[in-house]
Write a structure and sequence with these properties.
By secondary structure, this protein is an alpha/beta fold. The chain has two domains: about 170 residues, Rossmann fold (3-Layer(aba) Sandwich), CATH 3.40.50.1970; about 160 residues, Dehydroquinate synthase-like, alpha domain (Up-down Bundle). It is about 45% helix and about 20% strand. Helix 5 runs parallel beside helix 6. The longest helix has 21 residues. It is globular, with a radius of gyration of 20 Å. It binds nicotinamide-adenine-dinucleotide (NAD) and glycine (GLY). The site of glycine has 6 residues, from loops. The site of nicotinamide-adenine-dinucleotide has 28 residues, from helix 2, helix 4, helix 5 and strand 8.
């Protein structure tokens, strides 16, 4: 098992990464100082696969466990689902020192984290992420929240977990499309911070795709460590944390332009990263070799690098302008200057769309 510390003073926590560590979840929670009753929030799909082993592992360490099930799907990441979680917490008499455990992908993690941030003005919570995207990205860093009918993640809070328990064995049941989409975020960490990770992916991607668990442990722990270092510098995205948005400006716009139906988040981010790399090259920030390596690796993962013809320039511009990360009419666009190096470049949505050749 590897342990990655997120150093945030009083809000510090450990990320545990390993194979089969779900069975040690109770002990890991105790190590994180968790006491009292546990609410395990999960969805119907993940419950069928992993609720029993999690329940047993926690109960055998002496915890009282109350499962709270929500429906599966991004469309349920809403205030109304949140309200059903509060109803159960209240009727089961959860107290401020009780703990909420999020067992699932990013949807469960985001909504359960927000429930923990707001129930009784904040109760401890622990993430047990079960998708690759959640294991390398959404379970770390404390962004929690729900969607609003006018946009994604518009309501939320920064609220850090007390621990993150990542069992790479859980990925064996994940549909391949979800696994590949999660890989986009791993590739992103290589591009923004770590040429060694990027080079390792170029060499060993085939082993990751067949779920070599030792390699997965290494790659996931490295990804989490990169995210942890970014969060430590800028927890609330005042500045540096925005580097994690590499590929996301165009990716988010593409998701919005296709009404969140065509792409998984990572698939849209992959296209966004290819375009961010192309813009970085066009505008003289990086060389052709860097651009070529990025495009090749994204394709090797089985991800697309092109915006479909039918997506209009206007819809992309509207998507970028709606993105809550834009300020003063300009987007803080993340460009790469080399593998492992980035900088911010202020661009309007029109300038980005023009550079896309759309
Ligand atoms: P998801 O949570 O919808 O999970 C994808 C699908 O996989 C679901 O059907 C789920 O039930 C299923 N699943 C989960 N684990 C499984 C397993 N081990 N085996 C089989 N099936 C499994 O999607 P996601 O990609 O994990 O997360 C997307 C969400 O994360 C979005 O809402 C996005 O906004 C959010 N997000 C948050 C952050 C953050 O920093 N908080 C970062 C990135 C994305
Ligand atoms: N997923 C980007 C962030 O956590 O800031």
């Amino acid at each position: 098992m590897q342990t990655v510390k997120v150093d945030l003073g009083q809000r510090s926590y450990n990320i545990f990464v390993g194979e089969g560590i779900l069975s040690a979840a109770g002990d890991l929670l105790k190590r994180a100082g968790i006491k009292g009753k546990l609410a395990v929030v999960t969805n119907s799909t993940v419950a069928q696969l992993y609720l029993d082993p999690v329940h047993d592992a926690l109960q055998s360490s002496g915890f009282e466990v109350i499962p709270i099930l929500i429906p599966d799907g991004e469309e349920y990441k809403t205030l109304s689902t949140l309200s059903t979680i509060f109803d159960r917490l209240i009727s089961e008499r959860f107290e401020r020192q009780s703990c909420l455990v999020a067992l699932g992908g990013g949807v469960v993690g985001d909504i359960a984290g927000f429930a923990a941030a707001t129930y009784l003005r904040g109760m401890p919570f622990v993430q047990i992420p079960t998708t690759l995207l959640a294991q390398v990205d959404s379970s770390v860093g404390g962004k929690t929240g729900v969607n609003h009918s006018r946009g994604k993640n518009l309501i939320g809070a920064f609220y850090q977990p007390r621990a993150v328990i990542i069992d790479v064995a859980l990925l064996s049941s994940l549909p391949r499309r979800e696994l590949v989409a999660g890989l986009a975020e791993v590739i992103k960490y290589g591009i923004i911070e770590d040429p060694v990770l990027f080079g390792g992916l170029e060499e060993k991607l085939d082993r990751i795709l067949v779920l070599d668990r030792r390699l997965l442990t290494e790659v996931i722990a490295t990804s989490c460590a990169i995210k942890a270092r970014v969060i430590e510098k800028d927890e609330r995205e005042d500045d540096h944390r925005a580097v994690l948005n590499f590929g996301h400006t165009v990716g988010h716009a593409l998701e919005a332009a296709t009404h969140y139906r065509k792409y998984l988040h990572g698939e849209a981010v992959a296209i966004g990263m290819a375009k961010a790399a192309a813009i970085s090259y066009q505008q003289g920030f990086c060389d052709a070799k860097t651009l070529g390596r990025i495009i090749k690796l994204i394709k090797m993962a089985g991800l697309s690098t092109e915006i479909p013809q039918e997506v209009s320039t206007q819809s992309l511009i509207e998507g970028m302008e709606l993105d809550k990360k834009s300020a003063d009419g300009k987007v803080k666009f993340v460009v790469c200057t080399a593998i492992g190096k980035t900088c911010f470049h202020l661009l309007t949505a029109e300038q980005i769309a023009a550079a896309l050749g759309k």
